[in-house]
Fold Mobile element protein.
Amino acid sequence: MADKNNSRRVESSIKRTSFLGHLGLIAGVFQELEVDKLIDEKLPKERDHKVPHSVCILAMVLNGLGFIGQRLYLFPDYFRTISIGRLFGDSVTREDLNQYAIGETLDRIVKYGPTKLFTEITLHIMNRLPIPVHCLHADTTSVSVYGDYEDEETEYIDITFGIPKNGRWDLKQFVLSLIVNQHGIPLFMNTHSGNASDKSTILEAIKSLKSALRPESKVYYVADSSFYTDNNIKNIGKSFWISRVPATITEAKELLNANLNLKTLKSDERYSFYQTFVDYGGVKQKWVLLLSHKMKEKKEVTLRRKLEKELEKAEKSLKKLAGDDFFCEEDALKAAEKWIADFPSVLFEKVDLKTIKKREAGKKGRPLKNEKLKTYYKIDGVIKVNDAFVLKEMEKWDFSFLQVMISVFLLKRC
């Protein structure tokens, strides 16, 4: 009997136990910065649900930061062990945070415009907190979705096939563009159709955020090579920006293949640099080419290992080729030429033909006296590393290294 009473007291204690954890900090900041007031001003209630949209939005944020991500109909269950009164006020119960209230809030956000609301909240917070905007990073990602989505066209975006960044070519998707500051704080967000191009979405995001920031703000916009197009450079306007110039551009190819006089970087001797001014897209720009010596050494070690494996593979293949019989010298030489073409990393140091005499095909045992034997030819060759190929590969690796790793170009204000 005593055990049952103890068990009931424990169960009762568990039912009464609630926590806040990091969720209390989020709710406190949400209210301290008066984000709730801004949301209710922009999204006034239009239906009879009890809680305002600001409470539903805060509930969704807390749900996401609770590492749960519950479905809408499970929202009340998520807040079962959480102190609702401390987070939202004593007048709010977890039953108020049902799928209908949350769904209505999502509909109102779509109607008002998710990007517009996000930007207004961001600017509202920036007016109250010293959030730096000196260096803003713009990029996009793709979000794959499951389901057929047959003829699914919304008023805003199309969920369709595009170029997936997670490799899921079998799934339809939509694209998300995001701009964050140098500390990773998101300042702008927008969604696009699944087949939208980064070349246009990144420029669109930058121009949208530019129009919202104070004109006197000195901002550097950072984006990858998908931003660097003739059209984007012409249309971004007077701005500071940093990007990587694609090596497919003629001017970049010439620079990467030129014999440049690189200077050692004073602040870090592991790097060398070269800078020049060019005029591309009608905008005068400073291009800065950086070379990492440590990375170059790693590339050279990788190349040497690759060549050693290729040489070992070639020697085994040549040994197998040397066991083949050929009916004439011409056939043997053609086979040798064809073989060496498959292994450009090696050369024949010498190649000879050996002749052997055998009985005709199908006959076994020792030849009979005065039996006519057939003459066959075998390849007898010695290979070595093709120095010209190695040099060409080194140049190619250097070019690839410059292209992928260090052709980060700084562009000045136009």
Summary: Residues 9-15, 398-414 have pLDDT under 50 and may be disordered. The longest strand covers residues 346-358. The chain is about 40% helix and 20% strand. Residues 277 and 286 are 5 Å apart (CA to CA).
